[in-house]
C-alpha cells in the first residue's frame, strides 16, 4: 500500500466503469494518456495487470475484477470519512440540491423537514427532474441526490433508502372507454395505448414504467413517449393514451375534471428510492439519506 496515490485508484475505478480510456479521461478531466499513465503506475505497484487492452476493447483481468470488488467499498468509506470530517470542521453548511420525479409526497416532505431541523445552516433546493432522464441530473452534478422511480441498476449510483411502495393506477381520459371502471386487471392493459417515457432513460427503466407486455404475455400497444409527468397527463387528458402512475401521484392529481384514475390489479407495486453518486459522496446527501430513512421507517427491499 506504500506510495499508492488516490488519483491512481480513482483512474482505475472510473476506467472499470467506462472500459474506455478516452471516456475515463473526460470524466476525470485529464488526457487519455494520463489515464494510461496512472493505470500503469498502479499496476506496477500491485505487480500484475489489472486491465487487458487491445485495439478494439478494454476489459478487466480476473485480478482487476477482484481488486475492483475490494477497492470500491473501501474507496467509498474513505471518501465518506473525508467528507464527514470536512462537514464537521465547517458545520453542515452549503446547499443540498434534492432532485425528485413527479410529486413531492408526504415521505419526502417529512424528510426535508427533518433534515432542515437537524441542519438549519444548510440551504435546501428542490429540483424537479424529468421522467425521461432519471439519472442524468445526478451524473451531471446538477443535484446532490435524487428521489426516482425504481428500478435502479446503475453501477455508479448508490440506492437507498427505498420507500413509498404504492399500488399502480391507470390514468385515462374521462372519455376513454375504461373511464367508468372501478378497477382493471393487468391483462386489460392490452386494450390500452400506454404512454411511454422518451429520452435517454435506460431501456429496463422505461420498460418498468410502461411495460410492453402484460404479466400473461399479451402485447400492450405503445402510445406516444413523453419527457415529463405534465406532458403525460396532458396527452392522457387529450385521450391520446393511458399512463401508469403510482397511487399517491394519482391522488395528488385526482381533482382534474379531464382525468380519472383506475386501480390496476396484478402489476408490481411502484417504489421510490434515493440515489447518490458512488464516486462523488456528499456529507449533506448522506445526512439527508439518514433523515429520509427516519421519515420512512425501515427501508423496503428494492424490487
TrEMBL record:
Q: Which PANTHER family match?
A: HCA OPERON TRANSCRIPTIONAL ACTIVATOR HCAR (PTHR30346:SF0), TRANSCRIPTIONAL DUAL REGULATOR HCAR-RELATED (PTHR30346)
One Pfam family this chain carries?
HTH_1
Query: Does the keyword field hold Glycoprotein?
Result: no
Q: Which UniProt keywords apply?
A: DNA-binding, Transcription, Transcription regulation
**Domain of life per record:** Bacteria
Name of the protein in question: LysR family transcriptional regulator
What species is given as this protein's source? Streptomyces racemochromogenes
Recorded family membership: Belongs to the LysR transcriptional regulatory family.
What residue stretches are annotated with the HTH lysR-type domain? 4-61
Q: Which PROSITE patterns match?
A: HTH_LYSR
Amino acid at each position: 500500500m506504500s506510495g499508492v496515490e488516490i488519483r491512481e485508484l480513482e483512474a482505475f475505478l472510473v476506467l472499470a466503469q467506462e472500459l474506455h480510456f478516452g471516456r475515463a479521461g473526460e470524466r476525470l478531466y485529464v488526457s487519455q494518456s494520463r489515464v494510461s499513465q496512472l493505470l500503469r503506475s498502479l499496476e506496477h505497484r500491485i505487480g500484475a495487470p489489472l486491465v487487458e487492452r487491445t485495439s478494439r476493447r478494454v476489459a478487466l483481468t480476473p485480478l482487476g475484477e477482484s481488486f475492483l470488488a475490494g477497492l470500491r467499498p473501501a474507496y467509498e468509506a474513505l471518501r465518506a470519512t473525508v467528507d464527514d470530517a470536512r462537514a464537521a470542521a465547517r458545520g453542515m453548511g452549503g446547499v443540498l440540491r434534492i432532485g425528485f420525479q413527479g410529486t413531492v409526497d408526504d415521505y419526502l416532505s417529512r424528510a426535508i423537514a427533518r433534515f432542515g431541523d437537524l441542519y438549519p445552516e444548510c440551504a435546501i433546493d428542490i429540483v424537479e427532474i424529468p421522467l425521461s432522464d432519471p439519472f442524468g441530473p445526478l451524473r451531471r452534478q446538477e443535484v446532490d441526490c435524487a428521489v426516482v422511480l425504481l428500478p435502479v441498476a446503475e453501477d455508479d449510483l448508490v440506492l437507498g433508502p427505498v420507500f413509498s411502495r404504492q399500488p399502480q393506477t391507470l390514468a385515462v381520459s374521462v372519455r376513454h372507454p375504461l373511464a367508468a371502471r372501478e378497477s382493471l386487471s393487468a391483462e386489460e392493459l392490452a386494450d390500452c395505448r400506454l404512454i411511454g417515457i422518451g429520452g435517454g432513460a435506460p431501456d429496463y427503466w422505461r420498460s418498468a414504467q410502461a411495460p410492453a407486455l402484460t404479466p400473461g404475455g399479451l402485447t400492450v400497444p405503445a402510445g406516444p413517449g413523453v419527457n415529463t409527468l405534465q406532458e403525460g397527463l396532458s396527452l392522457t387528458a387529450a385521450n391520446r393514451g393511458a399512463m401508469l402512475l403510482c397511487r399517491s401521484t394519482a391522488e395528488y392529481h385526482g381533482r382534474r375534471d379531464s382525468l380519472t384514475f383506475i386501480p390496476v390489479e396484478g402489476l408490481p407495486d411502484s417504489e421510490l428510492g434515493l440515489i447518490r453518486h458512488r464516486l462523488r459522496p456528499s456529507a449533506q446527501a448522506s445526512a439527508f439519506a439518514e433523515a429520509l430513512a427516519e421519515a420512512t421507517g425501515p427501508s423496503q427491499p428494492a424490487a
